[in-house]
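Input for the complex:
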Amino acid sequence: MDKAWIAAACPQPSEQHRLAAAARQDALTKPPGSLGILESLAIRLAALQQRALPGASTVPIVLFAGDHGITAQGVSAYPSAVTVEMLRNFARGGAAIAVLARELGVQLHVVDAGTLAEEPVEGVVVDKPRRGTRDFSLEQAMGNDELHFAFAAGRRAVERITAGGADVLILGEMGIGNTTSAAAIAAALLGARAEDVVGAGTGMTSDGISHKARVIEAALSRHRLDGDTVAALDVLANVGGLEIAALVGAMIAAAQARVPVLVDGFIVTVAALAAVRINESCAPWLIYSHRSMERGHRLVLDALGADPILDLKLRLGEGSGAATALPILRLACALHAGMATFEEAQISGPDL
Amino acid sequence: MDKAWIAAACPQPSEQHRLAAAARQDALTKPPGSLGILESLAIRLAALQQRALPGASTVPIVLFAGDHGITAQGVSAYPSAVTVEMLRNFARGGAAIAVLARELGVQLHVVDAGTLAEEPVEGVVVDKPRRGTRDFSLEQAMGNDELHFAFAAGRRAVERITAGGADVLILGEMGIGNTTSAAAIAAALLGARAEDVVGAGTGMTSDGISHKARVIEAALSRHRLDGDTVAALDVLANVGGLEIAALVGAMIAAAQARVPVLVDGFIVTVAALAAVRINESCAPWLIYSHRSMERGHRLVLDALGADPILDLKLRLGEGSGAATALPILRLACALHAGMATFEEAQISGPDL
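Predicted:
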């Protein structure tokens, strides 16, 4: 198995296209800077896509699903069975992300990267090294080969889905128990206390949240991930999730292929943190879509220096926050391409 | 002239539809509340529109333009000529709001509610009591009949534009000098110091901003609007703008006709504050779209108890922030209507 690709350098954004886009923004009929983040998004996309006029028309969504052995410790409000039940709901179009994909006119691709499903679900690609992770309170969540299989599953999905071209890629996730795994990864990578990154997930009470934090603290100690320096690969193998590892692989593969990624909420942002720790050159390709209500998200975003586009008090996952931010990207591109310049419109400049 | 309509009571949202929409949200396949503001927007729209499934398809934009005598005092970075130049840019499709309207598939209606234009601009409805306001540092910005003419111009626009039905109405504005008028209105209505509500407008330097604040303080003192209790009608006549008065009239008329209004940035929010002071029953119909970079916006939003949808560092006006928030409303409506319930999707509920 080729394991070296995950660390191979990603290309960097085009400074030339960034400067040209910034100059165009300053010539458009508005006070310079007055479109705020709509300007900076257009400029950033121009640099990433290496185009004078960036676009966000073709934006496939890839959702990776996985199950988590840690649910045996009572860390989630919902049973693991819901993960596979939701796979059917994604495929049949009843889940939030499926509705958003329809409304936005984009394709939703669902990958079973490690659920407990024994049989394939119609409309879902199966690409998993095992059914669910092991209970990380007792043993490693996955072996090293399983981790690299999941990375490669992420890459395979990106290659398959962006083969026909993609302006931007949206990544989402589903997996009962995965806020516990994500919080454990975040605590280990940030050197933070579990209680500072643990949130309600799908809806735990405050007692449940305290229990979840204790389970994570004990696991980080057992796996010796509570020191000052930990390796991201060790963290993922010990307390990660298969869908989270697939997200990491997908992000790095997208960046290597020059496809900007619109990052969703807590889980996907934790995957982004791991991706950046493993391969720092992918960082410029990650656009943060929203600040979620999940407690640890803020800490992880701060560590990444991220200032997300939206803050809509979401905490669903599935890629729903990233999908909700897509129209903002589209409007930013439309303004960049469609507005008249002061010269074209023959409008007076500032009084000097 | 009928002047009493402005105070006539607006109907109130339907509690029955609000409760039904909230119950539907809790039955959809997601943890309750996990779609945050996307849930609360759908519920609120259902109550306003009195529908089980609210919508935001037909959403005309009305932009009122006006000029301001106060520009003689050097309070804007751009000359007054830009207001009329921009009217042409709106009509020809080169301005930000025109691009947004096209991209969103909604109609843009531009009303000259009081610009200096001597001749009609093609594609712009002229409905003004005078060309520009008087310089409010020296005299009343407008007379009482002119104020009520501008209110009625707002109402006429709403009647004309929503005649064929409108799910929501977007209100925008354009007028060189209108952040000065809006800041004066806000300071008077909130009993705030001018320096706390004055911002850069189209791009003043810090010296320019200080000058603008001094001009406003002096004017409020001259018109005796610096006391504890001031009447909103007096404030608008003394230091208001014709497009701002038209916005006030349009908001109240829309609320009276059961049409929810998506409120734009600083200027439109100040008009909302005046509208609520004049006719408190319009308040439930006003949905705040975004928090702008203009300094006083936060104070005015706080006074209205508003928590806007977006915070994109915009400071353009024209209705651009409200238009940018429209896709969020549309996605909220699509999720409300299109998601499966737990029962329909046969998905397990929480572990109890």
